[in-house]
Amino acid sequence: MKYRVPNSSFYFAAMDEIRQRLKHIGQVPKFFVFSDEIAKVRNDFQRLLQPRVFKELEWVSDSEETVVEDLYLMSQCRHNILTYSTFAWWGAYMNNHSEKIVIASHPSEIPDERNPFKVFWYRYLYFPIEWSLMKAQYV
């Protein structure tokens, strides 16, 4: 099954949101990038990001042997940016930092906003209420 991912504008907007929310308390975020296609993501980000911003990123291995370690590392981050992914969801959910910021992509076509049950399930059952949802266009 081919999974769709948000376009790059989602990631950049989410990174900017975290920068802004931490700026007022004097913190500068460090971004760790997790992916099962790390080389492709690194290449795409290098092409799309300014060199200054690209240097802010740390790349986490995509080796199959480190899946458990990757999940653990995600849970240890102070904040999380995640796509519509169960793996990333669990990493953010297991994050126990009391002041964490979680920004999750909100696929434009999901849920069907005409269906109240889907809206309720998506907003109140799938994502914890304290997480921020950000609209994303998927490619």
Q: Could you please describe the fold and organization of this structure?
A:
- By secondary structure, the chain is an alpha/beta fold.
- It has one domain (8-136).
- The protein contains six helices and five strands; from the N terminus they run H-E-H-H-E-H-E-H-E-H-E.
- The strands form two sheets. It has a three-stranded parallel sheet, sandwiched between helices. A two-stranded parallel sheet has the order 1-2.
- Helix 4 (67-76) crosses helix 5.
- The longest helix has 16 residues, at 8-23.
- The radius of gyration is 15 Å and the shape is globular.
Principal-axes shape call: globular
Which secondary-structure class do the elements indicate?
alpha/beta
Q: Helical content, roughly?
A: 40-55%
Number of domains: 1
The H-and-E topology, N to C, reads as: HEHHEHEHEHE
Largest sheet: 3 strands, parallel
Q: What would you report as the Rg, rounded to the nearest angstrom?
A: 15 Å
User: How many H/I helices?
Assistant: 6
DSSP strand content? 5-15%
| Mean pLDDT across residues | 84
Enumerate the strands of the largest sheet in spatial order, edge to edge or round the barrel: 3-4-5
**N-end to C-end Cα span:** 15 Å
Count the strands? 5
Give the low-confidence spans.
none
